[in-house]
Design a protein that fits this description.
Chain C: Keywords: 4Fe-4S, Iron, Iron-sulfur, Membrane, Metal-binding, Oxidoreductase, Transmembrane, Transmembrane helix. The structure holds three protein chains of three kinds. Chain B is of the alpha/beta class. Chain B has seven helices and 16 strands. The longest helix of chain B has 15 residues, at 251-265. Chain C is built from 27 helices and nine strands. The radius of gyration of chain C is 29 Å and the shape is elongated. Classes of the chains: A alpha/beta, B alpha/beta, C mainly alpha.
Amino acid sequence: MSELVRRDPRKEWIARNRLHPQHLEVLAELGGGAVANEWMGPNGVMRRNPHAVGFIGPNGIRRIDRSGAQQAAQAPGRSVEAKDARRHVAIDTPAFMIAVVPDMAGGRLSSHDRDLLGLARQLADADPAQPGAVLAIVFGEHKETTFGEAGIDRLMHLEGERFSGYLPELSVATLQGVDREMAPRYWLLPDSNVGGELGRRLAARLGERPAAQVWQVEADAESATGWRCTARGAAGRNDISRTLPRIVLALAECADPVSETRHAAEPIKLSNGLPDVLGRIEDMGEVAVDPASVSLAEAEFILSAGNGVKDWDSYHYAADVLGATKGASRVAVDDGYMPRDRQVGATGTWVSARVYVAVGISGAIQHLQGIQSCDKVVAINLDEGCDMVKRADLAVIGDASAVLAALVKRVEQYRFEQQENRDAA
Amino acid sequence: MPHNAKSTASVGLNVAVLVSIGRHPLTARTRRADQDARAVEMALTLEGASVSLLHAGQQEHEHEEAIRGYLGMGIDTVSLIQQQSQADVVPALANALRTGAPQLVLTGTRAETGEASGVLPYLLAEALGWPIITGLAAVEKVEQGMATVLQALPRGKRRRLRIRLPAIATVDSSAPAARQSAFGPAKRGAFEHLDATSEIDEALAAWQVQPARKRPKRLKIVKSSSARDRFKAAAAKADGGSGQTLSDVTPEQGAEAIFKLLKEEGVLR
Amino acid sequence: MLDTLLPILLFSALALAAIGAVRRVRLWRQGRPSSVPVIKGLMQVPRRYLVDLHHVVERDKYISHTHVATAGGFVLAALLAIVVHGFGLNSTILAWVLLAATISMFIGSLLVAKRRSPPPSRLSKGPWMRLPKSLMAFSIGMFVVTLPTAGILPEGILQSGVGWIAAFVLAAIIVWGLGEMFFGMTWGGPMKHAFAGALHLAFHRRPERFSDGTGGEHRSTGLKALALDDDSAKLGVEKPADFTWNQLLGFDACVQCGRCEAMCPAFAAGQPLNPKKLIQDMVVGMAGGSDAHYYGSPYPGKPVGEHAGTPHGPIVNRAGGALVDAETLWSCTTCRACVEECPMMIEHVDAIVDMRRFLTLEHGNTPNKGAEVLDNLIATDNPGGFDPDSRLHWAADLNLPLMADKREADVLLWLGDGVFDMRNQRTLRAFISVLRAANVDFAVLGTEERDSGDVARRLGDEATFQSLAKRNIRTLSHYRFSRIVTCDPHSFHVLKNEYGELGTPEAPADYHVQHHSTYINELVVAGKLTFKAWKGGSVTYHDPCYLGRYNGEYEAPRDVLRALGIEVKEMVRSGYRSRCCGGGGGAPITDIPGKQRIPDMRMEDVRETGADLVAVGCPQCTAMLEGVVEPRADIKDIAELVADALIIKMPDEKATQSKAAPTVSRTAEEVMP
């Protein structure tokens, strides 16, 4: 598809002229179906066009969908179109290198990785006359296809048998080799579980003092490197502002991800070959762990059961299928259905899950206090008036067992589809 | 939890735990550092192992009180390497470890005071030439100079590793919680003072340290070529407020709505 | 023959009793020293027995009468028997008195026998089942043997023919009687309670509990401070010998009547605690042995015979199997129902806290959330681990006057840790609106306030308690106020009764502390509050332990409710017999499982009254009772009830006179029955 946006002045004129007989059709066409039925008038008053509301149904009758689903569903079409407008950038003879070692969690660039690449771009493109190149070093297999879009100029992919599993010693020796050969100006690693460890190993190996927990990097003419970074210290209590060192372990959202340019992601190899390492750490593989045994305070997805749960087997099964950590209200614990360490609330554990699903919990004030810091709360309850429903971001009024059963079915179907996609890919 | 089972084959194992001064995240009162205390806990649950505690820092009343928190876990003595307040403690600790020659060194992943970059264990490992692993969850067995350990991964997963001793292992908050620090033993515990030269950390002076600022929340950026889309995104009503309630729906519809939310939040794996 | 035999029997029984007494005393002296006024204490025994102890016994009329007849008869009979038969004083008058005494004792023993057929579950069986027979043996034996002396039977009747056999039988009966009553008294029979009990009254570790004829309150409920400065001393009680000697003596005085067991909320809930068994276990430990010879109800879920101990062995083992299990000690809610009921005035709660102190301070073994709560108290001065600077966030809109600004106020309002609890914030808001309506000059400490230390102390963490208390005392010493008022009976108790000991000459800690119900009552009496008529349903009142039993305040809350026009439907267990809500003593934190929950039982008590609403005066009670699954009665704090009924007088006179005045007069009519 062409990246050029073609304009039709006549249609635009019709779109502006509300009295034109073709006005609605043209508006629908230009707006990608989302007809602007509300706009700010010249006097700052909101104006509505009642005729533009809704859409023509299959049998020719105008239908009005007030759920908003109709408009939202059609929005992506345009953004895809917009993506193609990104500028293509190729840096053939870089003045210097910025090395990035993304986590590649799940074989793809995580949002943390993308933020980091955004930071790398800032460092590389600071001087337009002498652009640097962003080098990404990726260990093991991956499924990522958008390295270029993420801002990577050079991609070193270390794959094969040798690089599968947990190999901190080999990884750090390889990075040392990269350092020797390409001498990147900066090393950027995500200060996450994986990248944080590797970055610290590398720093110790190279004898560089890294900046860890960096959340801000700014240009600073007075500093030795021209850059100054702000890092969290003392377990998040302090901000340490210092000259940007060579090795940077940065937090998520340290910079905006690259979105306006596309890069070459040109594959390169180590010319000296890979180092031989005597491994003193041997990876014997992952050990299966029951997700339900994750402690409540750490859990990010909790399926919590209360007095309204009657069918406990189906609840436990649902938690297993969803991969959720099990929680419980005080009543469910007191009645002996759940162990005490699963109790959520002011008198139990204070949880901070991303999603908290309360099944048959009416929401005593002690319980609601315990879930204060949860991001999204979903309530499944029979009683529409209960406090949990009021607190919930999404409440489904109905029988807990039936809804859970339907949810389990839906998730199983989703898993199955995913599996098929994976097999097909 | 099945992985916190006591290991039985660690008889005669010599374990050193590096402990630091902690600070409570809300009140900033000194205390035993959470991760270091978990490291001590881990050492104490190694049956038959002899445990020694090592702290490098200044000798101050407030610090001593915090270190007593570790003594209260049932430790008799803590070795205190005296250092000046601006000192780099890595050389002193490396020396002490070289002399003490423990087979296993445990410590927290990151300190609660100072730079807290979490690099110290790596520097020690590099200085001593020992392997280092992170996120130790349990020591399963020790035999013939090799330890089989479990490493904690995010979301409660575990990985089994075999590591050649002597080694350094760091412990994070996925390790079992530290036992209660009892007042009596804490009060009675003793300090063994070790003298060591302090190497001043020069770089620190150039840094500016101030109380942490709140990080700005990232706005949802809509990069679109169309001004109308950008305007729409910017003017969109912030979501929140009252939630959505679905009554009179079939279980399937309800489940679909929940499923959509779960998927959006990315908690379905 | 009997004339010669009887003195021998009497004196040898007395001699054996004396030996036993020495042995018993030595058992008690294994305990830590504790100084008591010996002579003064001994002089006090009759008064303490006849007034204070009898006051407790009198609550059960039947056993009170029984005991007067039996014990009175026995003491008199024993003394006269020594005089008449031991020394051979041939006085007919004395013999007649002796006969009367034995008759009284015999009647008493019949009553005892009736009580035990069949014995209620709270009474111990085993040797206790033979006690009525032994009492009868003594009284009958003494009666018959005195008949000749009194001139009813001819002298020498027992020396002839059939008389010899009768004399022989009689001698045997007397030996039995003397054995139980004299020998058994000091060697460990059921009668031990008389000997140990008398001395226990004399050397009680809380002499303040006894009246002294001058009237006034005689209550001593505050825990005693532990000296923390001594580096070598062990903290708390690890083994039986670590109790003070008069505590051991107190345990030995237990008569195994089981009144404590009948009152204990933890026992009723099926948690592994039985105060009676606990005291008996301490006796077993003091003497060394196993609990196999205990014949009362066991700890729920823990069969008798599996635990044993020695005076110098640990009471609690980490692995269990010692004298008692740790969960027994952690089941206690410190509601003091057992102490209140105990006719021997044994201090169960003190003993439990002493043992908890060892577990927490030396073992570092506070169960469940205990360790976390204590850590929070140390680091953030509140049990929830909240930011101490956010203490007053809930009241951002209330514009509370701060002590730091005012320096001086009539009332210092102690908010307590309820400030972090959304439910309790409602109560506090209500009370503040009451204070404002009555134009009270009050101020709060705001972020300067800390946890009172109640929970820490009950969990055995004396160090944290003292640290909190001393810092609070220092803060309070900066300000001038005439009284402290609080909505939290736990803070109330600690401030009133337990801070005093920790005060210093520069910062004395004897405050005039009032519970909010008491203070509201004062305001009502002074006519500073006017109420609308009560329109709600029937109401019952739940006495908080720390307000009632600990501090004797039963009437003020009821007076306030009456002033609101509410007629309180009393629960069967109310006043000093109120059943605990289960929220005290850190019990919700240590959370020892039982068969049912204490608050559920309490709500059942409420249900029996048919009340639609329970009035409470304690944030713990509110939280525990509201935790009961609906349908149940509503729970409201007294402050909330008062605030709801308030008629706020506008400062603007004209506006009120036309509208509010008629309302006020109407209210008056309706309130007055």
